[in-house]
Amino acid sequence: MNRPTDKARLLLQIRQEGVTDLRILAAFESVPRHMFVPEMFFEHACDDTSLPIPCGQTISQPSLVAVMTSALDVGDRMKVLEIGTGSGYQTAILAYLCRRVYTIERHRLLSLEANRRFHELGIHNISTSVNDGYQGWPAQAPFQRILVTAAAPEPPPTLLKQLANDGIMVIPIGPADKKQTLYRLRREGESFREDRLIDVRFVPLVEGDISET
User: What's the pLDDT tens digit per position in 122-160?
Assistant: First the structure.
């Protein structure tokens, strides 16, 4: 769908953001972003920009997906929890890098469409759920890594409890209508070491009932 020069330009942009891990670059090379955006935006799939998807959500710009993935420091034997499946693009990148991804989405439509894309691409190490992301996935906890792709006022305590010792959570923190900050939290026993990363802008993490649309 996209020319090789488009993908090369995208990978160069990711490198310019300081992401040089060959495993991450290979994941971006392998996962076709155009399959995760609405058809009307196919020609922009390799642009380093966020794009709208159904249910009032967005697919993040690839360089931000790369920075968040790099901050998560995913190993190939790890179990990862993702809060906010969205179109499934970030999920597919994670699946390339770890043993299994458990991903939660509150919009049933988005979850179903993402699951269809995973099957079309032959990605079989992803488990999906339509649920309240604030509750995490207790039946599969603990997780070595947790990635939250929506902004919360503070890290949800339930998710912190599901993070393994020495595990890492990457999450945007801040109000829904203002600038937010991407944090990396590393669990050290019952405490957490915080690293401020970059300023970001994400849709809010919604607590409560799921959406059938």
Answer: 999 999 999 999 999 999 999 999 999 999 999 999 999
Judge whether 206 lies within some domain. Answer: no
**What is the phi-psi region of residue 42: left when phi exceeds 0, alpha when psi lies from -120 to 50, beta otherwise?**
alpha
70 is catalytic: no
Range of the domain at 20: 4-200
Q: At 22, which CATH number?
A: 3.40.50.150
Name the residue type at position 31: V
Token pair 């799921």: residue: 210
Residue 126 lies in a domain: yes
pTM of the shown model: 0.95
Q: What is the total count of domains within the chain?
A: 1
In a domain, 212, yes or no: no
Catalytic residue among 50, 60, 63, 87: 60
- Position 118 in a domain: yes
Q: What angle do CA 69, 75, 77 make, to 5 degrees?
A: 135
